[in-house]
Each structure stands twice: as C-alpha cells, then as structure tokens.
Amino acid sequence: MPDLLIELLSEEIPARMQRRASLDFEKLLTDGISELGLSYESSAAFTTPRRLVLVLENVSSKSLSRSEEKRGPRTDAPEKAIQGFLKSTGFDLSQLEIRQEKKGEFYYATFQTKGREAAEVISVVLEKIIRNFPWPKSMRWGETSLKWVRPLHSIVCILYDDDGSKIVDINIEGISSGDKTYGHRFMGSGEFSVTSFEDYAAKLKKNYVVLDPSERAEIILQEMKNQAFAQGLELINDPSLLNEVVGLIEWPVVLLGKLEDEFLALPAEVLQTSMREHQKFFSIRNPKDNKVVQFATVANRETPDGGSTILTGNQKVLSARLSDAKFFWDNDLRTIKTDGLDIWLEKLKKVTFHNKLGSQFERVERIINLSEIIAKKIGCDPKLAKDAAYISKADLSSEMVYEFPELQGIMGTYYAKKAGYAASVSETCKDHYAPLGPSDEVPGSPISTVVALADKIDTLTNFWAIEEKPTGSKDPFALRRSALGMIRIIIENDIRISLSEILALGNKKADIEDLKEFIYQRMKVFLREKELRHDIIDACLSIDKEDDLALSVKKSFALMEFIKTSDGSNLIQGFKRANNILLQAEKNDGVEYSFGADLKYAKEDAELNLFSVLDSEEVKIKASLEREDFVEAMNSMANLRAPIDSFFETVQINSDVDHIRRNRLNLLSRICKLCLSVADLTKVEG
Amino acid sequence: MVADAPQCFQDVILRLQSYWVEQGCALMQPYDMEVGAGTFHPATTLRSLGPKPWSVAYVQPSRRPTDGRYGDNPNRLQHYYQFQVLMKPSPPDFQDLYLGSLEAIGIDSNLHDIRFVEDDWESPTLGAWGLGWEVWCDGMEVSQFTYFQQVGGHDCNPVSGELTYGLERLAMYILGVSNVMDMPFNHPKARTPLKYGDIFKQTEEEYSRWNFDIANTETLFRQFDEAEQECLSILSQETSDPKSGKNITMVHPAYDQCIKASHIFNILDARSVISVTERQAYIGRVRGLAKQCADAFILTPAGGKVK
Lengths: 686, 307
Prior knowledge:
The complex is a heterodimer of chains A (686) and B (307). Chain A is of the alpha+beta class and 686 residues long. Helix content of chain A is 52%, strand content 14%. In chain A, strand 17 and strand 18 form a beta hairpin. In chain B, strands 1, 2, 3, 4, 5, 6, 7, 8 and 9 form a nine-stranded mixed sheet that branches.
C-alpha cells in the first residue's frame, strides 16, 4: 500500500497560525478520505514558515465499493409521488425494485458506489480542504478568487511505494500539483523533485530547510544554551518566544550579542520587553547576579562572514531601541527628582479615563477613598493604603509607560522607590493590577490587596453605572478580568468582607444586584476549574446572608469533601427524604411542623437514639460553624447519618396515633433545620 | 547582482526609482497635498479600486504632526519620505521583485537576514485593510508589504500588491548613520554637499512648534467641517456638465477634500484638543468621506465602469 506526501508551499505564514494549521490540515484530510472509504495506517504533519506538510503511511490503493438503498412510495401511490421519487433518484421505473412489505408493495432504488482509486479520492478531498481551509484570517491575491493565508505557490502531492511515485492530479485556479518544490528562500539551490517523504525531508535539509518544528526548536535551544554556557552565562527560558521564533525560520542559526554597558542599569523588565516584544531576542543572564548582559537572536541563514553583519545590524537596532528607553528612563528620573510623583498626578487631570467617568485623576481620587474605607474594614493601615492608592496610577504619566504601555505598574514601582516611598507602598503600583490572568498570583501584602480591591470595585461599579457591561465575546474594559481578580483576592487572601457592602461603596448608580450576579457567575466558572461543583457552591452561597465569599467557598470545599464520603452522600439522601416527607405532610395538613419534637412521645429505640444524637451534635455543629471550622462541622454531620438511616428503617412516621405522628414530623423538621443551618442541601444534586 | 553601496540619501531614492521603472512601473511624482502616508496618494487609494491594471512607483513626502521632536530625536520626524509601489494585479513573483529592489540599493541577501514577519495593515481613516508583513533586515523593519483586500469599504478585485519603504530609516541603515540629521542628502563630494539636517533641521523645529502649540484650533475645526461639506457637496452634483456637455463625476476634487480633512485632523490631534472618544468620531467622519469617494470612483471610467 502506498504512502502519501502533500506539501503546500506559500509565502510566509504567520508564526502564530502554523501549529493550529498543521493540526487542522491533518484532521481534515484524514477525516475526509476516511469518509470516502480510504484507510491509512498513520499520519504526521509538519510546518515551516512557508510550508504545510502532511505524510500518510499505507494508504489503501482503492476505496471500498458500497451500496446504499432508498425506499420509495407504495406502488399504488399517486403518479406524482412516484415521479417525484424517480426525479430525486435519477432512476427510471425499470431500474426500481418492488418489494412486498406488511403495508403493501414499495419501490426501492439501490445505489452502487464503486470503489475509487486513492488518487481520485485524495484529489477531491484536498481540493475541498484548500478551498475551505479554516485560517483565522485569509486573503486573495492577483486575480484569483482562491483564499489562502498568504499567496499559495505550489502543491506537491504524490502517492509512492517501492515501485515508484505517482503525482496525484489537482488543479486549483491555475496551481497544478506536481512533485517539485524549492528549499530555503535564499540558501536553496533551485527547484528539485521528490519521490517519497524520506527523499523530500533529505533534499530539504540539503537545501537548508529543517522540516520538523520540534527539531528546529531543539537546535535553537541547545545552541543558545551551549553558547551561553561557553561564556559562563545562562539562558532565560522563554517557551512561548521559542514557539514563535520556530515559526519564523527554516534554517536556524543562533547568534549571541552583548548589551552595551550604558544599558545595563536599565530595569530588567525594560530590557526584556524591548528585546522580546520588538526584536524577538532571548535574554541571557549572568548567574552570579542574575543581570541580563547578553541577547540571543536566531537568524534564518548562514552567511560567509559567520553572521557578523547580521549580528551588527541586530545590535544596532537594539541599541536604538534601548537608547529610546534609556532616554525615557533618564527623563522620568529627572522629573521625579525635581517634582516627585505629584506632577504626574497633576497631569492625570488632563487624561480622560472614560468620557462618562471623568479623568484618570478623578478615578485615582475615588480609589483613594475606597482604599481608606476598605483598609479600616480589613485591618490595614489606612494612611499607608491612601498613599499607595495615590501613587498607584502615577506612572501612566511617565514617558516610559507612554512608550511601553505593557510596563505600566512595573515602572510605577521603580519610580515610587526612587521618589522615596517605602517599599510596601511602592510595590502596590505593580501589585494592584494583579492578578492579570487565571494563573497570575494575587497580591499578597495587605496594602496591595486593599488598593487592588478598591481599583476593581471602582472599575466594576462605574462601568455598571453607565451600562457598559460585557456582552457575548465583547469585553472592551476587561470587566470579567476585574471581577475574577476581585473574587480571587477575596478567596485566596481569605478576606472576610461582605460583597454587597463593599460594592455599595462604589458608584451608587450601579445596579448592585445585577453586578453581584455577574460576579457570582465568574466565581462559579472559576471554581468549576478548581473542580468545585456549582450546586455545592450554590448550596453554601444561598444561606450566606452576609455575602461572605471567602467563608462560603471554604465551606463549599469542606462540603464537597464530605459528600465524597459514604457518610456524606447517605446523609444527603437522608436529609432529602426527611425534607420531602416533611414538605408533603405540611402541604397536606396545612400546618408547619416547627414546634420542636418532644422526647416524651418517642417510643422506638431508633427514635430515642436520634433524639440523643441530635442533642449532642446540634451543639457541636453550632459551635463548629461559629468557629468556622467546617471540617469539624461536617464530621458532626457524619455522626447523624447512621441514626437517621436507622430511624427511617425501623420507625413508621405515619403512626396511627396522631400526636406521635406529629412529634415525628417535628423531629424530621429538626433534622432538616439542623442540616440547613450548614448549607442549603436541597440544592445539592444527586 | 548586488549593487555597490549607495553614498547618500538621494542615491537610495534614485536607485529605487530606476529599479521599479525597470520592472515596468510608471514613475509618478509626489501628490501635491499634505498626506500622512504614501497610501493617501490617489494613485494608490483610488487606483487600487476597480478592475483596471495599474503599476506605479513614487516618492511621497508624508507628515505626521504628532511625531515631531523639534529635530532633536535621531529617528523621529514630523515630515519624512516614503517610497511607494503599487502593482495591480499583484504579480506572482512580487516577493522576488521586492527582494530585487533590496539588492538594487546594496543590501546583499547573502550577508543579511531578511525575514517576512506577520503584520496586517489597516487604515481606519481610509476604510482599508490588507494582509502581509513587515520586512525585517537583520531585525530592522525596512518595508511594509501588503496585499490590499479592501479600500474605502470595497473589496479589491483584482488585488493590488503594495510596498512602502520608510526612506530615512532604510537609508540610515544602509549608510551606517545613527542620527538622521547627519545623513548625507546628496553626495558628500558634491559641489555643495548637503546633509539631511542642513535641509530639514530648521523646518522640523518650526513645524514642531506650530503643530504642537501654535496652530489655530478654532480655524482648524472650521476647516475640517468645510472640507467635509465641500467633499459631500462635490459628490452630490449631477454628473452631466451643462458647459462641456460631458458626464463628469468629480471624484478627485472630492477626494482632495477628504485628504485635507484627514491632515487637519492630524494637526488637531497634535494640538491635543481631541479627546479619546472624539477621536473615533473624527476618524469615522474621514472614513465616511473616503468611502463615498471610493463609491463614486468605481462608477467612473478609471474605476472600470464601461459605458
């Protein structure tokens, strides 16, 4: 059985799209040919900046023949129906078969699909894929109506086995398939033809293309590490940058260059941002003091001068960028030295935050006020919190942040320290933006926590007040991130505060109930990722009158662990049974059984036992809840399980004696009330 | 063949011009209005629309008032030159043609690392976008390479290939100059050798001051409105001209007003009198004009309308 090789050669494919494209290509092609009855043994896909490549091993040489039948109308059906069937099948009456069935005689049409040659099937499937490929963005070029990520130049498509190779014919808008391709854009020596995947990969390498992206990554990584090591330095790993660089080159050549001395004093983040974002350079540090002293760039070719022209050029570009950065840094420091951070706050008066929400300065003023109140609530020094809030956005006026917006906060911390603020206050500039993503850490220090909360409350309540809520995929002000950040700060720092109360401190025009619902939704999504079931968090939240998120979440985790045990799941069943019987009886009788059960009417052992267990555990549960020791509360709940089970097993609730029946219903009510004091167990599923 | 290294700024321009002339482009001249980029030249904006083949190259002086630095920054200027190439339909070997132009200005692809790095182009003011790359030479962006997909809200069919070279930066790189003002404009051994700074240092100072602090914003706001009104009024005229007896749609005069509005907006922006939200509204108004000009152009003979 033959193997199949496909190469789609185009102009440079954006690095970020390559991996997805190779997965899509592999899936679409293998699914497509399987659907049409071809089999294959294995597949592998590769990409380079100019190529999408797919190889399939042991493809069946023909697709299987198939027959399919379709039942038509009854033979005595109106002429119109029969004509309609003939039209839809393309058959004439003589080709139809008549079969006797229970309900009469019916027409049948049988379609025979003949097995097709592999080449024919592949050609059909590949053309369809090329015409409909799911690129995130695609384009037209010249006069074609075909769309591809960038102009498509050629198609290699061959089936080959030990006897030789054959071109699979495809022709799309003037691009015909063949067995010829090109190597590296600059280093390759022109067109060559290929007879198999091995032949193709070997010839590519001879023409300076490493086909496999993981091989290119390995070469780059090893080279960088070795060259750094040789100088007593070490590479700062950056997997996502490596991924990108792999998609920019076909023939990796690593070159290391030095940072000029005048730039070594710049903050590490400034160096790394300039190098990484703008130049796609890796950072190399001195392990002794962790200072970034060199960079690694990956060129796409070898040169007769050993890369020295390329390195000089890159170094020059970097120097120009870093000179810019140094210029901003020096200017900013000069400003701080003469005027402190105050002048930057003054400037924020002229910067609009949002046209309905005033200037950045007004925003800072709101955050200061909120910070003071929240600091008092959670026991943090209000004076320090106010100072920290005051300088938290100051760096938005700095030249460095104007030029490199991604350094907001980070620069603020450097500048605040230079301006003489205490470290704990200065760090707030950076930390109050945290957490920036689901995996980013929440601020740890009390001052940063306070300002971060204040900032997020201000943002959320104000955008809610002007009805700028996220809709669908649109969230231009990153409000989901703010909400999640707020939840995580409260939960992970175990801050005991009422959500409604702190939201009420923000913009009074905001619909707090609606906002709270939004925040709860984000919280459930977040906790689901932590494997906390939404029904359990619902059960705890719904009895939490205080909106004390941290508390409810702690309780939820304890409850979830409890439910996983057999005591836990059985107790839930017991509770639900008690609750159902009780509700049914209350409904039928038109009364509430909440007077409290009386021991003196208890007759059976199980009943007496339940009384005594309830007496002892009720006290313990109440105490545990007060101590917020939920694990202990659950342990006490577990002690209820066996007595409740045996009560249901041996005791008949509906006694003939009315006052005994009522007493037992009151006993059920006591069980339910006790369970419900922990969480609303009616909400727990299963 | 790689050419010898150019000796001065104008060498780079002359070589790009003759190279693209050899490739069959009509060598056009700069448009005689203030524009923010070579793309605004009607030879690109309007002519990239419609089915007619088109191939041009030209230098376009470009103005970006907010980039003024009083002549003190080594790279930034409020007035600079772009070299622009537009070929419709984009030829199949457009990338190779482009690489040829780098050889023509002395960039040897055997020694340098030339890369096509994703960079999609969009002009909100022209309602235009395309896909392509910024071209890197040893880590420096030397050109913008774009396949136009839409202009003025219309699909480009056929597609034009567009190249933009930032001439100062490119020339500084080739000539090994680190401050633009020190770059030789003509040959250093010419009878009167002139550096870039001899020609532009003073004008950068003058325009920086005017753009940032002096330009009369009231007048500018009024002129913006007037340009907008004039553009719309031109386009609303009957096509039949009673005087000549011809059918004349005055697309280019209308488009001039669109260019004017766009530049006035840029000065107002430099004067920092436009807030973030107003900004979008102004850009939207210019785009509206560009779109109407494009709508009108495709109904003219140059836009491919056959009677």
